Each structure stands twice: as structure tokens, then as C-alpha cells.
Amino acid sequence: MSAPALAEVAAPATAVRSPGLDPRTKALLVIAASAAVMGPGGLRFVPAALALAVGLALWERAWARAASLTAAAAAMWAVGWLLPEWWANPVTAVASLACAYLIRFTAAAGVGMHLIATTTPTALGFALRAWNTPRPVAVTLAVMLRFFPVVAAEAAAVLDAMRLRGLAGVGGFLRHPLLSVERFTVPLIAASLRASEDLSAAAVLRGFGSPRTPTALHPPRFGPADAVLVLGTAALAAAALLLPQPLT
Amino acid sequence: MIELEGVSWTYPHAAQPSLRNLDLHIRPGEFVVLCGASGSGKSTALRLMNGLIPHFHEDGTLSGTVRVAGLTTAEARLDELGAVTGTVLQHPRRQFFTDTAEAEVAFAMEQFGFPPGDIRARVDGALSALSAWVPLDQSLQRLSGGQQQQVAIAAATAHGPRVLLLDEPSANLSADAVDRLRAVLGELRARGTTVVVAEHRLRYLQHLADRIVVMREGAIDTEWTAAEFNALTDEALAREGLRGRVAVPVLKPAAAEGASVVDSALDGAPAQTDSSGLELVGVKCRLGGRTVLDLDYASFAAGAVTAVSGANGAGKSTLARIVAGLQRSTGQVRLGGKPLPRRARQRTAAIVMQDVQRQLFTDSVRAEIDAAGDGDGEAAMSDLDLAQLADRHPLSLSGGQQQRLVIATVRAAARRVVIFDEPSSGVDRRHLRSIADQIRRTAADGAVVLLISHDDDLLDLAADRRLTLRRPDRGPTNSDPTNSAPTNRDRTP
Question: Which of A214, B24, B172, B387 could make an S-S bridge to B4, C-beta 3.0–4.6 Å?
Fold first, then answer.
């Protein structure tokens, strides 16, 4: 009486614990954080965006994400900023340059992960409609939101299968990078397509994306949690502008 | 209520039609079962009834007429058809668009624009009915197969469709979950819902079905009334390639003891252990702050098939991942009496996944087997009837052929430990026997075989022993529906 056993580890045990934020607040945060860190002079905002991402992860009790974001940022800071000072050579210079970009992606992705983990497609669709977003765009974004966890679960399974076939080693990747990428992506695409076909068929049959005007059991509304988050983000942004920059 | 008149359908790029001149009339409130071998067209017929054909496969070729609740499916929009039909796919977990039972039950009504007060009342009613069987606060992906099935049926019927279509709903369900499914279908039938079920297992639908339609090669081969069906023996069903009563396998418990073990073969008796096979000694795994697997000792004989069963969260996947070297744990894993470190286990063990597409990496059958290892690839191909497919791309094969190919790679690599994960999902009697044969032959090669399955028919055919697991932090029974498993966040990379 069970789903496939090896899929057991692929989903959280309890339903998503959302801090009760309006999806529009979360979407705006993702856009603002991405624009700030990826734009010119974006490194100034990286610590603030990382603090925001870790704070959101803690708020939704995603301890593992909070820890891994912190660890990843610390590792990039060490390789990107400390290592070249201690041991300057072309290799560390290239690694430093890479980390200067990767840490921006990490910060933006950290904020995005909160949106993905805590927003149902229905809530996002409702919020986008409230902004008068064109229906094809709203439907596409909502489907993407639902599809991310599917792809993540399939990718984890494909990697497991590659490990058991001895295809996932670093040595093999360095010797045959294109072949390794192909061996990962082809089964990932095939398995994801298969999973997505059932998903989209079931959604369309239940009226998703139809010309009807949907309603919502829990219409998203701005609340005190949104106000707290907006104020906290504003404080972080102000600190980024006023305090000394650790990442320069 | 449902009228199919002279319907033929050919999928895009298919050489042969999947349905041929099909005529089928289903009355309002009638309960009809479509059965037949894999590929006979029963699932395709369901997709005609809910409009996925032709709307989801625009390049296919359709002739004839399909009308459902007065709508001609080729002309109506899919959401119009969805308003009068509810569909439950074979894998409910793949059709969930949300994460909770409440959101999933509300989903269709929200999309159809029901007033929020009406949605609230209907959702409350549905959740009230589900609450005795389903932990409502748990992620849908974490529920057992039977619980997911019940949520999917509630989500498909909450908006009040007049027709319910179910595609192999008993696939992957154990006997007790099938009993619950039968009760739910009985309630829907009593409410006057027209029900069409495509199914391999038939006996549980006895006393529910008004008519049984046996399909063969895309057309109706035989029809039985309820009385005629009730008079048929299981042997008569078997001659049609159909599965009758679910078997009740009688398996000896595997030699194991520990907090995770339900029936310890070592309790109160001298240990009947086998150091020539796979042994787990003091294996304990903690994830997310709790112990998910606790085995003082477990032994799996080489050349034998051990079924691993237990509710969701009982530790089946953790056990499989530890054995395959994909999960860290304390304790020791030995093979042939020698300790086997985690990395070495990755080179010694293999998993045949339920979705075998995930483990096909190359561009031809031959290349796939050559990449598997230095074993006798030609013999493996020949044994598994793949020689004539050697130059085909693995992703162009049928599901059954892909499964055989993965088994061939396992045999070519001469893996000494092989884990099968739910290998018989939704297959007919003939294919069930074929899969059981493959599992038996893998064990006959001398491998230690672990079979994770809830299909009692398969266990009856293929397994020698059974290890039943339970959550180690729960009491001696394993009936608590709130059982949960390690979370994704807890996963060790």
C-alpha cells in the first residue's frame, strides 16, 4: 500500500509550512533580490540577500536549506576572497572570479527557493491574476512552480542510477564532460517528460488554464507577516548601502 | 451517458491503430470494467472518454464519434469535459498539482470558478470522509499508495462530475488497500455516479460491476454481465490473460531482528543466519533527528528472493539505499562474510527502478549493455530476448522492453546484489509471470535479490522470504496511518 519505495525520500514529510506570506510579496522579493545582486555593483547587496534567504529558510523551518546556503556562501567567500590573498596565482584568480559570480547566483537562488517551497501553483496563479498578468504567462509560471520539484526528484534518481553504474565520478566527468552531461540529461528529460504528461493532463482536465475565471479557497492577502518582511528587507537594503562592504 | 460509435484511433507516429471501430454505450449510473492484456486499448478508451484524445494528441488520427454527458468530445473544450468527468490516473502521485489534501480537493472547484463558500463546504465534506484514513496534514507525496488513491478520487469527484474514470486503480495496492478502494467505489456507485474502470485485477470489482468488457487489440473481444462474470472461475480468467483474486503469499520471515523488524525470525529461536549472502549487522540510520532504520541483524541469502515490505516510512527505501551504498549508516554490511564499504557497495549492487527510463544512458541497446560491465553482454541480451533490438535506442523501447534491458545490464555487470523496486506496476497476468521469471533468474545466477513490492500476486510468484519493516520509533504494530518517512531535507548527499 505504497508509492514506489525509492521515491520515499523525495518529498517533505509534512505539508509545506508557509509563513503566511502573500505570493506577490515573495515574487517581488525574488525579482528585487535578483535585480540587486545580478546588476552592476551587485556584490554590495549579496550579504543582505543571503541574510534574507537564510532568514526565510529559518522562518519556514527549512533547517537544511538554511545550513547549506550558509555553508555554500562561506565556502565561496573563502575561495573567492581569502584564498587569493593567501595564495595568489592564476588558478586561484580564476576560482575567485567564478566565486564572485556564483555567490550572486546563490543569494538570488536562495530567495527563489523560498518562493518555490512555500507557494502553491493555485496561490501563485491567483496572485498573478490580481496583477492582471496575461493568462498564458500566469499558467506557465504556475506550471513551472509545480514542475521544479518533479525535475529535482527525477534528477536525484538519475544521479543515484549513474552512481550505481559507475558513471557519476569526477574523473569520468573530467575525461568525458560532454558524454557525462548527455548521460545525465537524456534520462532526466525522458523521465521528466513522462511525469509531466500525467501532471498536465490531470491539471487541464480540472480546468487549469481554461478561459473560466478561477476562485480561491484561501485568497492571498497582504498581512502583518508581509509588512514585517518588507520592513526587514528594507533594513537589509539600507544596511547594504550604509555599512562597509565585505565583498569587494 | 457515454457513447462511442465506430471509433478508431491511431497515436501520432504509431504504425498501428490503438482502437479499431470501437462501439460502446454506457448507461447513466452503470459501472463498467474495461479489461484485457497490456496494450489492448483499455487506457486509450478512457482517454477518449475524458477528451485527452484527441485534444492532448493533436497529430493522431481519430474517426467515429465519442459523446459524454451530451458533449461531443472532439468539439468540446477539455475543461468542459473535465466538468462532467473525473479522472484518476494509474499513478495518483503524478497527478497531484498541490501538496495537501485540502488544496488538492479544492483545486478543480477553484479552476472551475465555484463560489468560495461552496468550495469550503464541499472540501470540508470530503476531508471529513477522508480523515479516518488519511493524515490530512501530511504532504501528499508522503502518503501511502492507498491513501494517495483516496485523495485522488476525492479530488476527482468533489466538483460533482457525473462520470468517474479510473485507470488501473488497484495497481501497486496491497490487499487491504484494495478492500478500501472497493468500499469507496461502492459509495460512488450508490450515489449514482457512472463509473468506468480500466483494470487488470478483477475479483475485487465483483458485486460492483454491472458489465465487464474484455478488450483485445483495440476492439471489444467479449462482454460479460455481472452474473456471467460472477460465475467465472479464476482459471477461466487466467485463460483470458486476466488477474482474478489477489494471491495471499505465504512467505517465511527473513532472518532478522531489531526495532525495525515486524516478524523477527530470530525472536526466541536460534539464529538461522547465512554468512554466504548479504548480512547487515548493527545497521542504524538516523535522518532528520529520528531513527528511520534500526536492524541489529539481517541476513539475505544469495540465490534467493527476499521481499521487503512495510508501510510508507517503515524504512524500505533507506534499507535499499544503504544496501546499494547510496546512504550512510552506522554498523556493517557484509557480503560473503566480508565487510563491504559504502563505495564498494555501489559497485556491487544494482537497482531496477520502477521508472526504468531513469537508468538508460546510451543510444543503443548494445551500447547500454556494453557500458554496464565486462560480463557476458551477448548472453544477457539473448537471455532477455533483446538480441533483435540491439541497435534500437533504449528510449524507443516499450516499458517492458526497457525493464528487460535494465535487468540485462545488471546481469551483464554480474552484480551480486540486485534490488527490484515495484517492478510489476500495472501489468497483466502474462507480463507479471514474465517479470517474476526475470527476478527468479537473477537470483538463480547467484545474486542476493531484494524485492520491494506491494503486489501480492508478484510476491506469491517470485519471493522466497519476507522482511516486513516498521518504523523503529513506533510500537510493535504498523497500522498507524500517520507513519512518515525521512524527508528530502534530511537526505544525506
Answer: B24
- pLDDT tens for residues B360-412? 888 889 888 888 876 677 887 887 778 888 888 888 887 778 888 888 888 88
Q: Do B112 and A212 touch (CB under 8 A)?
A: yes
Tens digit of pLDDT for each residue in A7-53? 444 444 444 445 578 888 888 888 888 888 888 888 888 888 999 99
A187 with B357: Cβ contact below 8 A: yes
Considering the domain architecture, whether residues B119 and B235 belong to the same structural domain is answered as: yes
Sheet with B417-421, edge to edge strand ranges = B252-253, B465-468, B305-309, B448-452, B417-421, B349-352
To the nearest whole angstrom, how far is the Cα of B74 from the nearest Cα of chain A?
14
Name the pTM for this structure: 0.77
Residues B220 and B258 in one domain: no
Nearest residue in B to A158, CA atom: B358
> Is position B382 within any domain?
yes
In a domain, B486, yes or no: no
| Boundary-marking domain end, from B189, B209, B240 | B240
Q: Do residues B183 and B256 share a domain?
A: no
Distance from CA of A93 to the nearest CA of B (A): 29
Domain count for chain B: 2
CA distance, residue A98 to nearest chain B CA (Å) = 23
Pairs across A and B, CB distance < 8 A: 265
Question: Residue B183: inside a domain, yes or no?
Answer: yes
**Residue B110: its chain A contacts at CB < 8 A?**
122, 214-217
Nearest CA in chain A to B356: A191
List of chain B residues with pLDDT < 50: 267-271, 477-493
Of B50, B111, B490, the CB nearest to A210: B111
Residue A72: count of CB within 10 angstroms of its CB = 17
Assess if residue B328 is contained within a domain. yes
Residue span of the structural domain in which B205 resides: 2-240
pLDDT, one tens digit per residue, over A115-163 is 888 887 777 877 787 777 887 787 778 878 788 878 888 898 899 998 8
Quick check: B139 and A14 CB within 8 A? yes
Do B303 and B333 belong to one domain? yes
**Looking at the structure, do residues B327 and B381 belong to the same domain, yes or no?**
yes
Q: For the range B374-383, what are the long-range contacts, defined as Cβ-Cβ under 8 Å and sequence gap of 24 or more?
A: B375/B411, B375/B412, B375/B413, B375/B414, B376/B412, B377/B408, B377/B412, B380/B408, B380/B409, B380/B411, B380/B412, B381/B408, B383/B408, B383/B411, B383/B441
Helices (H), B131-284: 145-157, 175-190, 226-231, 234-239
Q: Say whether A8 and B98 touch across the interface (CB within 8 A).
A: no
Of A6, A15, A157, the CB nearest to B100: A15
Q: Which three cell numbers stand for residue B386?
A: 533483446
CA of A230 vs chain B CAs: smallest distance (Å): 27
